[in-house]
Amino acid sequence: MNLTEDILNKIREQYGEAFYLLDSAQFKCNYLELKEAFSKIYNNFNIAYSYKTNYTPKLCSIVNEFGGYAEVVSEMELELALKIGVKPQKIIWNGPIKDPQVLEMFLVQGGTVNIDSIEEFVMIEQITQRHLDAMFNIGIRCNFDVNDGVLSRFGFDIDGEDFQKVLSAILRTDNIKLINLQCHFAKRQVEYWPARAKGMIELLDRIGIVPERMDLGGGLFGKMEDSLKKQFAMKIPEYEEYAIAAATIFAERFKKGDQKPELIIEPGSALVGDCMKFVGTVKTIKNIRGKTIISVLGSQKNISMAGVNPPIEIYATGENRVNTNNADFVGFTCIESDVLYKGYSGKVGIGDMVVISNCGSYSLVMKPPFILPQFPVLDISEGDIELIKRKEKFSDVFSTFNF
User: I need a labelling partner for 156 at 20 to 30 A (CA). Which of 49, 139, 278, 318 fits?
Assistant: First the structure.
């Protein structure tokens, strides 16, 4: 995405002083590159895109066009997947809480549900008894220690009584198919991925069952600019490093025999992190007790990055530019901690445009209707300006309230 002052001014004149820029072309490249990295080691591989990370319909549709799965964790995300044309058989529903009626509808349609608790399984058992002529695709979320220092709250302790109860009940129920075993761990460092893969392989060997799919969950770093990488204490891995760490173990385990499960991962940030920029306009510049404060039409909540300085570029689209030293860019909200970037030095003017990169993960989906509605989303990565999401209005925020 090559930006210029002229391009940004043109967009600002038409769509307002703050907006997101989506890079769908980069998203496609990331998807294909990640899939290739794993597939060349273990060829029965697929991606289940994490809708919660960025549920922009255009991105979700690209995943569907490329043959990937939709990984959803709510009724809202499930409805989105169905609305854009994803077949239920290509949807994987995770998450700790599911609406019983929607769950029943989805299971009857042939979707896959990874159960997270004994209470959820009891609910599913009741559903299967009401539809004895249907076959239900069920997975189990598996929890074990990968020595990352985190006690994950998701899934079943594979050494616990509930896991064995659920597994036994699934195997003795004629109209339930154990289609998947899944795990998910939060830490993104590549050194924990071999433990995921080995833990799942050991579980297969212990229970003596190989389901159609083995799902290692999400938790991968994505691509980012060097200025951001330098702020992490660890090296940011490439796609190939994750593939070597996990897919190699599956390739070794299943190098003999015909029964080779589909290996799935559930990336979000790894695919979309570098596929969105946020653009805001400089509105005020002031000095408070020796500190330069630059306010921007935009907020930390628009970029969803805290504790780091995001990649930033200032475009000279304003007037009366001045030299600044150790200045802070702050947001429009009335919150002291709403700081987008700390310690900037360089020329800035009222009306300049601030472009912040690597805003694809969680920014759009976690921005609350706090003080201002959400800004528009535009895609200029493949030529013309495409409006992906219009600017929200008062009515979008307040239509559900009673006046």
Answer: 49
